[in-house]
Write a structure and sequence with these properties.
Length: about 400
């Protein structure tokens, strides 16, 4: 009955949240665990030993076995990206002339909400998670500049993700999940497109292995998720539009976590992720495959307070070979279009705090992060400058006065 109540609450949150603008810190347009309540303070590290069950649902469902009882988490992040384009040459085919401007997309909200339940099936423990995850997003708007050719882009992908984890042996756990994604796409040129949406599935499997009482290894693999936006691109007014195929990449990650230092109060974690953009429709013509390194730490000051910090290095995914063939105007248009999706930052810094039992059975997590300002030349006439800062928080209700199976 308690699980049913929480599921109804989650469904209500899904309805109330609805589609939001995209955020400002993904890898390409794919989100990780940087916006989760605990992992967000640890640079997203969460493949081997996530400190919130939402991160296990999103990356490694086998790690759900590290939790017990019943838990409900409500989290959200506010991001402030600053995206500037300096266009120094005209592109006559879409009405672009010289301009220098900041995107007018305002600050943006990304929700992450979920419920966890430990149950038993045929005498075996089953650890179940269900979450709403902000999986992908990007938004830029230059409609206030008549010289921009009505450039405005909007992409949002929300996932409903049921996942389950099983403890196979004392040391080995396995898990699997399914992501039902709903995606909304508009742009990149408002005069030639309409906002459309689509639905698609992707699968996720994971492993978690206890090397020792202090060390965990984790692995996950997600399939690609490709959407088809019907009649999205309208080249000639009054005629049927063209379908746009766009997706999220196949990806995998491996992580390690260790808590052997400071009498077990210091947790050190590292993840390596690989995003295969060549499996994702549309982006395979914009991005290169991308390696990501995530480093994080958590120190338990006492049984009720934790401090966290993290650093990420993500390869710049922009494929500089785009727009290097054909005539000059075609090249300029390809580069200008690619620039609308230019998440070019390689460095991300995060910190956070966690408070246990701020009220009986209620935990509070706070985190913040930033991508320092960087620039990228998209050919000889288009320059993008991007920086972003974000702050988020989460509340986790624990029923039955439980925390994790092992306070490692």
């Amino acid at each position: 009955m308690r699980l049913l109540t929480l599921l109804l609450l989650l469904a209500g949150c899904l309805i109330c949240v609805g589609p939001r603008d995209a955020w400002g810190q993904p890898y390409g347009v794919s989100g990780g665990n940087n916006l989760m309540p605990a992992s967000g303070g640890m640079g997203g590290t969460s493949v081997a030993r996530p400190q919130d069950f939402l991160s296990a649902v999103n990356f490694n469902p086998a790690a759900l076995t590290q939790y017990e009882g019943t838990q409900f988490t409500l989290a959200g992040t506010w991001a402030e990206p600053t995206f500037n384009i300096d266009q120094s040459a005209a592109i006559g085919s879409i009405g672009v002339s010289q301009f220098n401007a900041k995107s007018s997309t305002p600050g943006i909200l990304a929700p992450n909400i979920g419920v966890f339940q430990q149950t038993e099936v045929n005498g075996r423990d089953m650890h179940v998670g269900l979450a709403l995850i902000s999986a992908s997003g990007l938004g830029t708007n230059f409609l206030h500049m008549t010289q921009s050719g009505s450039a405005s882009s909007y992409l949002l992908v929300l996932e409903v993700a049921p996942s389950v984890g099983f403890q196979l042996t004392d040391d080995l756990a396995v898990g699997a999940g399914v992501f039902l994604g709903t995606a909304f796409l508009e742009g990149p040129y408002i005069a030639r497109s309409a906002m459309t949406n689509d639905y698609a599935l992707r699968a996720n499997v994971g492993l978690d292995y206890d090397v020792s009482d202090e060390t965990n290894l984790g692995f996950y693999w997600k399939t690609r998720q490709n959407f088809t936006f019907h009649n999205q691109e309208v080249l000639v007014p009054g005629t049927p539009g063209n379908d746009i195929h766009l997706g999220l990449p196949e990806q995998f990650g491996i992580g390690i976590a260790n808590s052997s230092l400071a009498d077990g109060r210091l947790l050190l974690a590292a993840d390596v992720l690989y995003l295969m953009w060549d499996t994702a429709d549309f982006w395979k013509n914009q991005y290169r495959n991308q390696w990501i390194l995530q480093l994080g730490m958590q120190y338990e000051v006492n049984d009720h307070f934790k401090i966290r910090a993290g650093y990420d290095f993500a390869e710049n995914p922009i494929d500089d070979n785009v727009g290097t063939t054909g005539n000059t105007q075609e090249n300029a248009l390809a580069k200008y279009t690619q620039a609308q999706f230019g998440v070019i930052n390689e460095n991300r810094f995060t910190f956070g705090v966690g408070a246990v039992d701020v009220l009986p059975g209620l935990d509070f997590d706070l985190f913040a992060g930033g991508m320092p300002r960087v620039s990228h030349n998209f050919g000889p006439s288009t320059i993008v400058n991007l920086e972003s800062y974000w702050i988020g928080a989460g509340l986790t209700w624990r029923f039955g006065d439980v925390y994790t199976i092992e306070r490692r």
